[in-house]
Structure formats: structure tokens, C-alpha cells
Design brief:
Blueprint: H1 4-17, E1 25-31, H2 35-47, E2 51-57, H3 59-67, H4 71-85, E3 90-95, H5 108-128, E4 130-135, H6 139-144, H7 149-160, H8 164-180, E5 183-188, E6 191-196, E7 203-205, E8 210-211, E9 215-218, E10 226-230, E11 235-237, E12 240-242, E13 246-250, E14 253-258, H9 262-269, E15 278-284, H10 296-299, E16 305-310, E17 329-332, E18 341-344, E19 347-351, E20 354-355
Parallel strand pairs: 1-2, 1-3, 3-4, 4-8
Antiparallel strand pairs: 5-6, 5-18, 6-10, 7-9, 9-15, 10-13, 11-12, 13-14, 15-16, 16-17, 18-19, 19-20
Helix pairs in contact: 1-2, 4-5
Length: 368
């Protein structure tokens, strides 16, 4: 018998996150997940009158395809995937990972080639379809979170099926503030960073694009970033783990990048001209997510966090930066992680992870 929580999650994804309508076509991208969640999604899509197409993939096969990819292979994949994506109105990806480092030994130049070639597929999906992406709970994720498998599954379904409609209402004042803000100043241990978000806009993330969710993002004016930021959260990019990343900026560009695996870090930032500029700035506030687990869909929503993203900007909040890279790096500013402040136009709007202005206090954990 399937876990009844599967049907609850599928209903949320189909009817809230993607708001699927009768006759719409949806691609279900299922990687290393149980058949039962795929069945639940297909049934929920058909109940909405939609047409589901299921793609089942496995991370070990993906790794093998990437190990010796070349321009001919990547180009063929791009043409097939883009043609299919253009037939879809919506997209849901449920991504499991028995081994989060499965692709760590794929040569960097192969990954760069593949990412650059497939970027039009990602751009079309992000900008032209209704979409939602989420992880699937596995023992490896539980281990990364330092939790038992059962406890992690309970946590996963609690955070993924929370009341996102309520959270959406609480986000509205932060969206308005970010839309009218100009100068942003980030302060904290090892961090003194200034930039402008004037005219860029702001986008609430309320369970309609990622699950779990809980952030509002904007983007720096491309050449405005000045100063330094020290991240205190580990991050995995293309199967490689990085820690203690520190970025120095001059006129918007990363001029110095240090941290663990420094050579690999700089290799990624040299993927293309846009990889050393920033494509996203976001504040995270999901009350159920307190600590990092090296999974960015969770870590970027940590209560009291922010993330700053080298690489591609989203069209929703666009500064014109283009890159094959989009690397969310997370800084937690709660007191147990060293504290810190976020200032908009001379006003401190968050200190030590807690929102201070009255109109933003609905985003503090006890209110969500």
C-alpha cells in the first residue's frame, strides 16, 4: 500500500504549485524515486483533466552519459529535450539521489559543455512553463541532515506540505519592500557587501516553483556589487562539496574566490564570462528548515538565511547576466551561526535572522 502522504504531496504539486488545468500537458521528470510517487502524480494530473508524460531516469545512467559527452551528443540531447519541452505547459521534477556525489568524477570540461549546450532547455522550462522542482527523501539525505531515515521522512513531508497559502500572504510586504529598494548592505562575520537592486523587482517563492519553499528573491544591478561575503554553509555543485567559500567583488565581478577545493571553485567560476557576476539575491525564511544538509532546495530556504548566486539571472528579476552556471551560495545569519544584518536603504530590516519592521514580522518562525 502506498504511503498516503504521496497522494497529499501530489495533489499539492498538481493543483497548487502548477495549478494544472484541463487539457494542459505536463512532463513528470522522475529521477531515482519510487514508482508510487510517479503513480500518484499521474493520477492527480489526470484527475485535473491534464495529460501527463512521465520520464523515468537514474543518476548512475546520467553520470555515464556525461562522462564522455561531446558536442554531438549534447547537441542531440538538446534538440530532443527542447522540442519536447516546447510541447509542455507544465513540468514537475522529483529528484532522488542515492549518492549526492554521483557526478563528482565527471570531467569538469564535459559538465561545462553539457550545461552550456542544454541551457536553452532550462531557460525555456523556467521562463515559459509552469514548473516545480523538489527532492525525494533518501537515506543519504537523512544522513546529510544527521537524522534517522524515519525522522527525516517525517520532516520532509511536514515541510513540503506546509500551508504555503498562508506563507504567501506573509511574503507580500517583503516583496513590496524589495521592489522599491535601492541600496542593500549585508553585514556579518567576514561579510561587508553593498549593492543595488533598484528597478530589478522581486519575486515571491511560495510553493509554486520549488518544494520546499520560502524565499523572496531579487537580483543585484550587474556592476553594483562591492565588498566581500563569507558563506558559512557547505554547498555541493556538480557533485563536488565546497566549504568556507569567500567571494570578493569589485564592480560586480568576483575578483577573488577562496575556500575548500579552491582550484575547482575557480574553474567553475571561469565557465564563462557571466559566472563571476551575480544572478540572484534572496532572503530565506522557511520555519521548518533550520540547518544545512547540502541540498540547495532545502538550504536556500533556511530560516534566517540569505543566498547570493554567481551566474545566470532569472527573467523574473533580470540584470542581464547570462551564464551556464547558477550557483546558490547560502549564508545563515541567526545567532547560532554568527549573526548578521540585512539593510535596505539605511534601514535594518533583519537582524540575527529575525525581521524587525512590523510589516515583516509575519515572516518570523513563530508566525508561520
Amino acid at each position: 500500500m502506498a504511503d498516503p502522504r504521496y497522494a497529499t504531496l501530489a495533489e499539492l504539486l498538481i493543483n497548487y504549485s502548477c495549478d494544472l488545468k484541463k487539457g494542459e500537458r505536463i512532463l513528470l521528470d522522475l529521477i531515482d524515486v519510487p514508482d508510487d510517487i510517479g503513480v500518484a502524480l499521474i493520477r492527480a494530473a489526470r484527475a485535473a483533466g491534464a495529460i501527463p508524460i512521465a520520464e523515468v531516469r537514474h543518476s548512475r545512467l546520467i553520470r555515464e552519459a556525461l562522462r564522455e559527452t561531446d558536442a554531438a551528443h549534447a547537441g542531440l540531447v538538446q534538440s530532443i529535450e527542447l522540442a519536447r519541452m516546447k510541447r509542455m505547459h507544465a513540468y514537475i521534477a522529483v529528484r532522488g539521489a542515492h549518492n549526492a556525489a554521483e557526478s563528482s568524477d565527471v570531467p569538469g570540461e564535459r559538465l561545462q559543455l553539457y550545461s552550456k549546450t542544454l541551457r536553452p532547455v532550462l531557460n525555456y522550462r523556467v521562463n515559459k512553463t509552469k514548473w516545480c522542482v523538489l527532492r525525494w527523501p533518501t537515506p543519504s539525505m537523512a544522513q546529510a541532515a544527521n537524522m534517522s531515515t524515519e525522522a527525516f521522512e517525517d520532516f520532509y513531508f511536514r515541510v513540503c506540505t506546509m500551508d504555503y497559502r498562508r506563507m504567501s500572504k506573509a511574503m507580500a510586504p517583503l516583496v513590496r519592500r524589495m521592489q522599491r529598494a535601492d541600496r542593500v548592505h549585508l553585514k556579518g562575520p567576514g561579510t561587508d557587501l553593498r549593492f543595488s537592486i533598484k528597478g530589478i523587482g522581486a519575486k515571491p517563492c511560495e510553493g509554486t516553483r520549488n518544494i520546499p519553499d520560502g524565499e523572496v528573491f531579487s537580483c543585484p544591478v550587474k556592476h553594483s556589487v562591492q565588498g566581500v561575503i563569507q558563506f558559512n554553509t557547505p554547498t555541493i555543485y556538480a557533485g563536488t562539496k565546497f566549504e568556507n567559500i569567500r567571494l570578493e567583488f569589485r564592480d560586480g565581478r568576483v575578483v577573488k574566490a577562496t575556500g575548500s577545493n579552491e582550484a575547482k571553485l575557480n574553474e567553475i567560476l571561469d565557465t564563462d564570462a557571466g559566472a563571476r557576476y551575480i544572478g540572484e539575491f534572496s532572503l530565506g525564511f522557511n520555519p521548518h528548515i533550520q540547518h544545512p544538509m547540502c541540498d540547495i532546495l532545502f538550504d536556500e530556504k533556511i530560516a534566517g538565511s540569505l543566498h547570493f548566486t554567481p551566474g545566470q539571472a532569472y527573467e523574473d528579476c533580470d540584470n542581464g547576466n547570462r551564464s551556464a552556471v547558477h550557483w546558490d551560495m547560502v549564508l545563515i545569519q541567526r545567532p547560532d551561526y554568527g549573526g548578521g544584518e540585512v539593510w535596505f536603504d539605511g534601514e535594518c530590516i533583519r537582524r540575527d535572522g529575525r525581521f524587525l519592521p512590523k510589516d515583516l514580522q509575519g515572516l518570523n518562525p513563530e508566525r508561520l
